[in-house]
Amino acid sequence: MILVTGATGYIGSHTWVELLNAGYKVLGIDNFCNSSRKVLDRVEKITGQKSQFIEGDMLDEKFLSSLFRNNPIESVIHFAGLKSVGESIKIPISHYQNNIHGLLNLLKVMQENQCNKFVFSSSATVYHPNNLIPYVEGMSLGSTNPYGWSKYMSEQILRDIEVADTSWSVAYLRYFNPIGAHESGLIGDDPKGVPNNLMPFITQVAVGRREYLSIFGDDWPTPDGTGIRDYIHVVDLARGHIKALDYLINQKQSLTINLGTGQGYSVLDLVKSFEKVSGKKIHYQIVERRPGDIAQFYANSQLAKKLLDWTVEYDVDRMCKDSWRWQLKNPNGFGE
Length: 336
Ligand code: WQD
Prior knowledge:
Shape: globular
Order of helices and strands: EHEHEHEHHEHEEHEEEHEEHEHH
Largest sheet: 7 strands, parallel
CATH topology of the domain at 2-179 and 231-260: Rossmann fold
Bound molecules: UDP-4-deoxy-4-formamido-beta-L-arabinopyranose
Number of strands: 13
Distance between the termini: 31 Å
CATH superfamily of the domain at 2-179 and 231-260: NAD(P)-binding Rossmann-like Domain
Radius of gyration: 19 Å
Low-confidence stretches: none
Helix content: 40-55%
């Protein structure tokens, strides 16, 4: 059985669907602090399978102990955590408590139950911003915000556990910028409050929930002056997790992998692509740069291809099309 923490979140729910479609036995857990209970029915609708789910919190060690005592969990895919760069700067304690304390609780209970296969949701924000692009897995690490540092520290904790106990195998998956949604339009990115990330803001403008998009600077050293990122379809990202899990099960070795397309797109590139596929005009205003932003980063994705035989299937137009279908079918997201 695979335990998926944060199973009702944006990436968690898409990975849950891909795991069920691939025939895995999955137990999902979540505390719904940044997701909706409605995802449970949506996952069942998409896969036609009854989802196994228990509500609970990573900070509740008793809950985690009973989970492993009562279920034959052989490996874990860990998504549960807070992921807002901006919020982490304002309230770092909550990000460190959830992302580090929650991780330590989980790892302790895994060790007590001889469960030692772990897929970790890391992030491109662990790469030091002075690195040349495209980012390669062996480059220097370091962050500019508590969220990024929490991912950096989590990786260090896991590497120390591997040194102490060589029976562990860990997949460190460094995500770039996940966007898009399942083709059914039943699940998608539904951030609470004002979206931090670009795509949910664009779709909320398109559906009439927001008046205009604020573009954080058009004076960056990039071709059109706006920030460049490596956008990856969330379903491609989810499928990368399956490949990484299979690698841990079959090779019994750890790996550190970029999950990105290797292609950079600017903010204006994304707006243009979205307008093309949706037929909607996205009004925007150029405003000041956002603290913590950098001009551009994108992945060298060759190692994922070499080790996992994983490459992305979906291009940026498809990402925009799927994001738009999700928002059009769910103008208020899951409505919570
Ligand atoms: C993308 C681009 C902004 C919003 C963060 C995390 C990263 C990952 C993805 C988890 C930038 C611009 C954005 C807006 C804008 N999350 N932008 N107006 O900051 O690259 O990455 O989310 O792992 O770890 O750091 O993503 O979508 O916030 O920004 O102009 O309203 O869009 O300046 O150039 P980011 P983003």
